[in-house]
Amino acid sequence: MSITIDNKMYLDLFQLGKDISLKPKVFFNELQNNKELIRFISTCDQKKYEEFLKIDPNKETPDEYLFRVSYLFNPHQTLKYHTYEFADVKDIGRVIVKFAPKVDVYIKDLLEKSLLLQFITMKEYDKTQPEFYDKILELTNMSKTHPNIAYFRLGFFLYGTNNISYDGKIFKNYKDFARFILAGTELKSRAAEVEKSGYLIALQIETSKSPNVYKRYAHTLKIFQDKRKRYEIEQKHANEKHKVKK
Amino acid sequence: MNSEERLLLYISYSFPELVNEQYKLASALKGSDIYFYLTQNIKKCAEFENARSKKLVSYYEGLNFNVKSMEEYVLLYSRIYFLCTQTHERYYINPLAIKEGQCSLKSIGEILFKFDGALVPFNTIIDRNGYSLAYKKLAVKENVGIYKSEMYELIDEKIKLIKDKKMTRRRLNLGNMLSIIETVFILVFIALFIFALCLTKLRDSIFASPFSNIPSIMTFIYFIAMIIYISLYVIVATWHNRLYEPVFYTRRFMLIHKRAIYSLIDKKCLQLEKYLNNALETRKHLRKDIYLFAGYNESVIDLSSLNILQKGVDNRGYNFFSAVKNISFGIMILVALAYGCYLIFLAFTQGSLFA
């Protein structure tokens, strides 16, 4: 039995699984509306068909849905997500660092939606490379609260913290980058962008291999923000009282 | 704080040698709106005789703009915000320690109370559901307890100040020693003069022909110097006592009324607690009652008398006369020594001075 989708003939689920994430628009539509394709899936592997029915396309984004379906059909393939294909997981780091400070939303999705974690779990990294697995787990958890910092930390973790790129310029290391930011008018013009991207913080954490500086920074900033917030509430109260008096 | 400052802070943790902006930023804080606002608040705050307001003023005076790092700068900035908040009257007013017309609050209900881990206006506590009356009463007890301990602290501080060596002469110091020596010497000067008058030969020569011989001239010089010195001593001593009278009065008052003041504070605290509990029970908001328990002026001598004293001690006339008196004391000792030596010389040259 075979099925032809987008002018390509598929003989089994393994082949189908390989292409699902590479042609997201085509397969999302086909998996929803093509009854022949559904029949093909059920014929090929009844167990996988049952699992497939449990994945609800309405609960997830199309890319996330396709990712899960593709790895259900073919768990042995390389990392693929929304037309991207990475021969090695470490290649993600190269892409992240190369295009910094721009954030690739699809790679960010991989981390935020725990897809990367799911992928390395499937590949049994938790048994073969437990430290690597723990790191991805840590970054996945961090991405829930600090998505950009976690994204760039992933980049520096996989690529390394030397000869890094920022806006097309290459920097030897964190200190070199810090010097660049502090020099001339760079601080004024780039401060908002650097802060928003989380690049600098991610680079520092991965360089020092410790979150202590970031924790200290966050603590100091929290003190300041709490005091300012309290002041603003008090000021608002005083203004309201003043208005009532008038 | 903007993005630039936050980045500088972050980089400064790893490379403090690359960041030197903290000095400029800290000095710029002095020209900021927030600091101006704080200065205005502190001026008002300093008018209150209140333990918390005093702490706030001292905290403000202790602000250190000479920051060494970006972190210190951010903490300084935070402190300014913190002080700006805390120097609103509803944060530090103690309803027992205010004077009529001093406060811009209208009601005790506006004052912030510690309640369930936060600061809440008392009128809001009245309305707040989900808490038992007993729990709210416990909060009232705790807050009134704070007012009470603040009042005790204030009284203790005044008593301590009144006992300070600068304000009273109870402790032995250089000034007091000089005063005692002067008193002893005045008696010695007078005794020496009376002794001279008792010497028959000398007395005859003084009164028989005044100013015509050396013993007579010497005795009169001694007498005049002694009168001048004693007059100066009396003038300065009288002036001193007039200046220090407020302190003596305050000290006497404090010693006599100390217990009465404490029991009056206890009584007022009980009344306040009862008043607040009643408001909780009837669920009625407090209005226009901010001075209801403000018995501060009647019960406690304030420190204005001590300020008057300080002005007096700094008085130029008093200081001048005091200096002249001290100089004349020195001269008088020399005169007495010379006169004493002369008497001894006379005794040796003329044999007995009594016959």
Tally of contiguous helical segments of chain B: 14
Assembly status: heterodimer
Report helical residue fraction of chain B.
Answer: over 70%
What portion of residues of chain B belong to β-strands? under 5%
Proportion of helical residues of chain A: 55-70%
Q: From N to C, what is the helix and strand string of chain A?
A: EEHHHHHEEHHHHHHEEHHHH
Structural class of chain B: mainly alpha
Global shape of chain A: globular
- Summarize the helix and strand pattern of chain B as letters: HHHHHHEEHHHHHHHH
Question: Largest sheet of chain A, if any?
Answer: 2 strands, antiparallel
Instruction: Tell me about the largest β-sheet of chain B.
Output: 2 strands, antiparallel
- Largest inter-chain contact set: A-B, 29 and 27 residues
Given helix and strand content, the structural type of chain A is mainly alpha
Number of domain modules of chain A: 3
Mean pLDDT, all residues of chain B:
83
Distance between the termini of chain B: 98 Å
Strand arrangement across the biggest beta sheet of chain A: 1-2
Provide structural commentary:
The complex is a heterodimer of chains A (246) and B (355). Chain A has 246 residues and is mainly alpha-helical. Chain A folds into three domains: 1-77, no CATH class; 79-210, no CATH class; 216-246. Helices cover 70% and strands 7% of the residues of chain A. Chain A contains 15 helices and six strands. In chain A, helix 1 (13-20) runs antiparallel to helix 5 and helix 8 (115-122) runs antiparallel to helix 10. In chain A, 31% of the residues are buried. With 355 residues, chain B is mainly α. Among the domains of chain B are: 3-92, no CATH class; 165-258 and 302-350. In chain B, 71% of the residues lie in helices and 2% in strands. Chain B has a two-stranded antiparallel ribbon with strand order 1-2. The radius of gyration of chain B is 33 Å and the shape is elongated. Chain B starts with a helix and ends in a 5-residue tail after the last helix. The model of chain B has no long low-confidence stretch (mean pLDDT 83). Chains A and B meet through helix 12, helix 13, helix 14 and helix 15 of A and helix 1 and helix 5 of B.
